[in-house]
Amino acid sequence: MKISPLVVFLASMIAVACRDSASTRAVNVVSSSAAVSHAAQLRLDSLRSDSIALTRIPHVARPRIVRGLYVNRWAALGEKMGQLINVARTTEVNALVIDVKDDRGFVLYKSRVPLAIQIGADTNRAMSHERLRSILDSMTSHGIYAIARIVVAKDPLLASSKLDWAIRRKDNLQPWMDKNGKPWLDPHHREVWQYAADLAKEAYDLGFSEAQFDYVRFPDEKRLASEAVYSLANGRVRAQVIREQVGFLRSQLKPSGMPVTIDVFGLTATDTTDMGIGQKWEMFADQADVVLPMVYPSHFAPGTYKQGNPNANPYSTIDHALKDIKRRSATIKNVAQIVPWYQDFTLGPPHYYAEQVRAQKKAGYDNGFQSWILWNPGSRYTLAALDPER
């Protein structure tokens, strides 16, 4: 009788759990944070024999050309996850970018990271460990590259739990609030980036091949400059802070071999300033393995590149943006690989169909950029814009 690979995997996990002494495992996990509560310690102890126990998990090698789709948290939790795996299995798509920590601060699955446990980041409809294992095993079997998206500075859950790490107001030193009334983490705090690195290490141990860090920046609200104070700045400009922190992420993940990739504003290679968010092309482009500029035509202001409506001219807008990227990157030593984000959503006129998505892809190809990732906030994609099986 043929034994299922899942049965073999679970049997091996039980054997590992039995071999490991409870005291050794507890020390290994809890030692990373002296601030973990007693309840959190009990949670950690209970995970000793869980099916996400850290073992040697196979990883899909990074494709030479990456063509991916974004998978939001709810899509990953529901039936859409299987549908998107099937899209990747039957089209040119070979990668899926899955929300591991979203911009509300919630982690996709039950975590072993002490800080995530302490603040309850993994308690909002967390994916079961069995489902996560099934998803990653299915992706691996079809050669689909798994990318863990981890939001860094926009984390109201952590900012509310660790007020000392939040951006502070000048006038009263209370947490600064964005236009939605939410606090942001202060990028100056190394602990913020350590948390992101710890989540990335865990994701790698679970089977994700790459960490993609988003919101590696300060908030994009002009009033921030006059309202906020940074006690840890020590004379550094915002772009220097982001450079140093991205470099820290890379140093943290280098031992595992996990690539470090960052999402940045699409205008960063055209604008010569840091746009108030700390993202200046020459300051970060050599600090990551891959840089993903979000060159969504809908996000370029009227008049950009002398176009009345950049959104209505997807080919031309992407063509201009990528030419600026090539120009700005030409003089940077050890510059990262560039993988642009394209939009597969409608934001203002005109409506985006396959024609508009394909126009963006063509602009990339014409400029030598064969890789891309499509963004749709609801993870609903225009299949007619995708070529047949890779």
Describe the structure.
The protein is of the alpha/beta class and 390 residues long. The protein has one domain (61-385): TIM Barrel (Alpha-Beta Barrel). The protein is built from 14 helices and eleven strands. Helix 9 packs parallel to helix 11 and helix 13 (314-329) runs parallel beside helix 14. The radius of gyration is 21 Å and the shape is globular. Residues 1-36 and 46-54 have low confidence and may be disordered.
List keywords for this structure.
390 residues; globular; nine-stranded parallel beta sheet; two-stranded antiparallel ribbon; 11 strands; alpha/beta
- Principal-axis shape equals globular
The run of helices and strands is HHHEHHEHHEHEHEHEHEHEHEEHE
Could you tell me the mean pLDDT?
A: 89
How far do the termini sit from each other?
35 Å
**Which second-level CATH architecture applies?**
Alpha-Beta Barrel
**Strand numbers in spatial order across the main sheet:** 9-8-7-5-3-2-1-11-10
Instruction: Please give the domain count.
Output: 1
Q: CATH first level: which class?
A: Alpha Beta
Helices, by number, come to 14
**Overall SS class:** alpha/beta
What's a quick, concise take on this entry?
This protein is 37% helix and 12% strand.
Any chance you could write out the topology, listing elements then pairs?
Layout: H1 5-19, H2 22-30, H3 38-46, E1 67-71, H4 73-77, H5 80-90, E2 95-101, H6 114-118, H7 129-141, E3 145-151, H8 156-161, E4 168-169, H9 190-206, E5 210-214, H10 224-227, E6 228-229, H11 238-253, E7 260-265, H12 281-284, E8 290-294, H13 314-329, E9 337-338, E10 341-343, H14 354-366, E11 372-375
Parallel strand pairs: 1-2, 1-11, 2-3, 3-5, 5-7, 7-8, 8-9, 10-11
Antiparallel strand pairs: 4-6
Helix pairs in contact: 9-11, 13-14
